[in-house]
Amino acid sequence: MFQKIKKFMKGVCSSERIGMMVLMLLVGTVAAFAQNSAGDYSAGTTALGTVTEEIAKYVPYVVKLCYAIAGIVAVIGAISVYIKMNNEEQDVKKSIMMIVGACIFLVAAAQALPLFFGVSS
């Protein structure tokens, strides 16, 4: 089947960009027809509602995991900075900024995650 599509694409155009665009349009059209022929949208809505509820159950655990990873990054980073300072390396300030940035990102992600999924902590 793939070989037939490939032959068709070569026959339609010689440029790969145009061929890829035609293929994407073809796939999009087939997907639209498949979705319209499904008819019953309540099953999809129910499935999405169920998935949303299941994901919401995991959000508190992921928040705690983000905090734990931030703590581990901070401890390992502090040890790394201490070693670099004792060896009198030149990029100590850069290392400190990278570690602080990573910790701030992880804490901010942990704060934003419940808001993203609409879960109150």
Integer tally of domains:
2
Structural class by SSE content: mainly alpha
Mind telling me the C-alpha Rg? 26 Å
Q: Secondary-structure element sequence? A: HHHH
Instruction: Tell me the β content.
Output: under 5%
Shape: flat
The rounded distance between the terminal residues' Cα atoms is 51 Å
Residue stretches low in confidence (pLDDT < 50, at least 5 long) are: none
Count of helical stretches: 4
Describe this protein's structure.
The chain is mostly helical. The chain folds into 2 domains: 1-39; 51-121. It is 87% helix and 0% strand. The protein contains 4 helices and no strands. It has helices spanning 2-12, 16-38, 42-86, 92-117. Helix 3 (42-86) runs antiparallel to helix 4. The longest helix has 45 residues, at 42-86.
Key descriptive features of the protein:
0% strand, 4 helices, mainly alpha, 2 domains, 87% helix
Secondary structure topology:
Blueprint lengths: L1 H11 L3 H23 L3 H45 L5 H26 L4
Helix pairs in contact: 3-4
Explain briefly what this protein structure is:
With 121 residues, the protein is mostly helical. It has helices spanning 2-12, 16-38, 42-86, 92-117.
